[in-house]
Structures are given as C-alpha cells and as structure tokens.
C-alpha cells in the first residue's frame, strides 16, 4: 500500500527557509526530517524568494493545477459533443437508406 505523506505549506516553507539560510544542507535536512531529496528540490522550485525575504507560492505551480482542471473539464465536454455527433451521424445515415 502506498502511503504518501502530506506536508502542509508552513512545514514546506520552513524547510526551504532552513536550507536557503545556509544553516543546514539539503542532505542534512533530508536525513533529519525523513523527506526525500527530490521532494526538497521540488519544494525549492515551488517557492521563490520575494523582495522582503518572504516566500510566496510560485504562480507557475498554482496556475498549473487550475489549468489542468479546466482542461479536463473542456476535454470531457468535447468528448460528449463528439459522441453526440457520432450518434446523430448514425441516425441520419440509417434514415437515408
């Protein structure tokens, strides 16, 4: 069974700040917190430093999930429209004969 750990935004933010502050290395943080190095790299990409030393969630990752949901909705609508047109074509083809 795959039990994927979920970390809240505050934990991720604090972890990224710890790494970027230079107080601890990425490898040490990975080992101490039990978080994979690849996850830490992803978190560092997800957050970008703001002018006031704050971190904000990257626009890119926030819009990605929203865009993906919208595209899935549009895709479902297009499939339904295609299916309707196929059925209509079948009906009209059989009427002509």
> Which residues sit in consecutive blocks of at least 5 with pLDDT less than 50?
none
Element order: H for helix, E for strand: HHHEEH
Largest sheet: 2 strands, antiparallel
How much helical structure, as a percent, in the residues? over 70%
User: Under the CATH scheme, which class of the largest domain?
Assistant: Mainly Alpha
In terms of DSSP E residues, the strand content is 5-15%
CATH architecture descriptor text of the largest domain: Orthogonal Bundle
How does this structure look, described?
The structure is a single chain. The chain has 97 residues and is mainly α. It has two domains: 1-57, Arc Repressor Mutant, subunit A (Orthogonal Bundle), CATH 1.10.10; 61-97. Helix content is 71%, strand content 6%. It is built from four helices and two strands; from the N terminus they run H-H-H-E-E-H. Strands 1-2 form a two-stranded antiparallel sheet. The protein is rod-shaped, with a radius of gyration of 24 Å. The termini are far apart. 5% of the residues are buried. The mean pLDDT is 81.
Topology:
Elements: H1 9-21, H2 26-33, H3 37-46, E1 47-49, E2 55-57, H4 59-96
Labels describing this entry:
97 residues, mainly alpha, Arc Repressor Mutant, subunit A, 2 domains, two-stranded antiparallel sheet, 4 helices, 71% helix, rod-shaped
């Amino acid at each position: 069974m795959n039990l994927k750990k979920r970390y809240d935004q505050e934990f991720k933010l604090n972890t990224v700040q710890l790494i970027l502050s230079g107080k601890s290395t990425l490898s040490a943080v990975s080992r101490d917190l039990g978080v994979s190095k690849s996850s830490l790299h992803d978190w560092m990409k997800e957050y970008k430093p703001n002018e006031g030393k704050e971190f904000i969630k990257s626009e890119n990752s926030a819009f990605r999930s929203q865009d993906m949901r919208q595209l899935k909705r549009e895709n479902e609508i297009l499939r339904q429209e295609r299916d309707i047109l196929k059925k209509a074509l079948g009906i009209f083809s059989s009427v002509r004969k």
